[in-house]
Amino acid sequence: MKKTLYHNAQVILHDSIEWGAVLVEGKKIKRVIGEKDLDLSEFEGVEFIDVEGNYLSPGFIDIHVHGGGGYDFMDGTEEAFREIAIVHAKHGTTAIVPTTLTTTTERLEDTLNSYAKVRDEVINGAEFLGMHLEGPYFALTQRGAQDPRYIRKPDPREYRYLIENYAGIVRWSAAPELEGALEFGAYLSEKGIIAAVAHTDAVYEDVVAAHKVGFNLMTHFYSAMSGVSRRNAFRYAGVVEAGYLIDDFDLELIADGIHLPDPLLRLIYKVKGPDRMVLVTDAMRAAGTNVSESVLGSFDDGLEVLVEDGVAKLKDRSAFAGSVATADRLIRTMLKLGDIPLEEVIQMITFNPARVMKVADRKGAIEVGKDADMVIFDDDVNVQMTIVNGRIVYQLNK
Fold first, then answer.
1. Contact predicate 305/296, CB 8 Å
2. How far apart are CA 386 and CA 374, in angstroms?
3. Contact at 8 Å (CB) between 19 and 35?
4. What percent of the chain lies above the pLDDT cut of 70?
5. What is the 8-class DSSP label of residue 139?
6. Residue 309 burial by Cβ neighbours in a 10 Å radius (0-12, 13-18, 19+)
7. What is the mean pLDDT of residues 218-238?
8. Cis peptide before 58 (omega within 30 of 0)
9. What is the mean pLDDT of the chain?
10. What mean pLDDT is predicted for residues 203-213?
11. What's the confidence (pLDDT) of residue 145?
């Protein structure tokens, strides 16, 4: 079994950064060695890779991504899955959760069928962790860039059919105030599928009820969700306030510097702390490209969008239409805030998403026995190398 020693590295551990080395054997991390304990002469038959003083981090895990490199998962093709995995790996992502959009049952099946064909392939890109269905059970008033033609209430016949026939579904986002949403959430929890609050006009009490049946994640916090509102003269706390008040809600953050401005990122960090923040790209097909126009969703049935100011927008500029960010950009955004340690930012895009997706037993940290998913990057978070399950899938200038 091949052995590789990554040495002369600033190794990012769960709560510290230490000079040292990491020994990989096959697909797993075999040893984590401090600099003072490192003796290169003891490693016979081992390939040495000099990290040259750069950071050696756990691989980035993106649990909400729609596309990149000119492809969207809603294209419903195996090629789209492969190419999106490759382009995001160039930016340090070692595991992704492919995400759909609000659409017809038939088109969802096309994408789920393509996923089933590629899920176990060895690709020179990020590994797939299962599918995230974003919609179609949303509030029309908070649809954002979701296609209003296909938004509907939870339909037990539809969601039970999909879950029973497609084992790859690991997460589903929905509005908890809709008729039938609590029964839907309870069914997801029963099946071990993550239920997330999204595109919702709920009030605090709706979210409390949803939390009791298993909703424990908020999809792109602040985006397409209610805050304080007045109804018949009375003020009601909304979904945002529920996210802050309910301690064990994890909050998904599109930290591209556009969806959430600095003051909101600072507020979230101050209230929730690093343990409940999960950085995601929510990237659409224009991520990793230089285009000025693109399509959100499939080419034949998606929405035409503009790409400007570092974000995708609807043509009338009335709403954002997904980000064009990659994982490295999210880290740079958080570090620009100035008062968040690098190891905490890395936790938000490695260990936290691994915990949320129930794979923390094998991913999300540089620890003995875990998958050898790692990223080498410099002081400016420029990715030099990406390693997935012990294989180098990307190397700068090669």
1. yes
2. 6
3. yes
4. 100
5. -
6. exposed
7. 95
8. no
9. 96
10. 98
11. 85
Closest CA to 364 of 278, 289, 272: 278
Go through 317-342 and write b for each residue having 16 or more CB atoms within 10 A of its CB, e for each that does not. eeebbbbbbbbbbbbbbbbeeeebeb
* Contact call for residues 29 and 57 (beta carbons, < 8 A): no
- One-letter amino acid for residue 101 of the chain: L
- CA–CA separation, 323 and 337 (whole Å): 20
Write the DSSP assignment of 64-110 as a string of letters.
Answer: EE-EETTEEGGG--HHHHHHHHHHHHTTTEEEEEEB--S--HHHHHH
Q: What is the pLDDT of residues 142-161, one digit of tens each?
A: 998 898 999 999 999 999 99
> How many alpha carbons fall within 13 Å on the CB side of residue 231?
10
Rounded to the nearest 5 degrees, what angle is found at the Cα of 85, between the Cα atoms of 79 and 90?
A: 130
Residue 382 has pLDDT above 90, yes or no: yes
The letter for the amino acid at 75 is D
Task: Classify residue 122 as exposed, middle or buried by CB count within 10 Å of its CB (0-12, 13-18, 19+).
Answer: exposed
Helices (H), the chain: 78-89, 105-118, 156-165, 181-190, 204-213, 239-245, 262-272, 327-336, 342-348, 351-356
**Residues 266 and 309 sit within 8 Å (Cβ to Cβ):** no
Cα separation, 308 vs 294, in Å, equals 11
Angle between helix 262-272 and helix 327-336 axes, rounded to 10 deg: 80
pLDDT of amino acid 139: 96
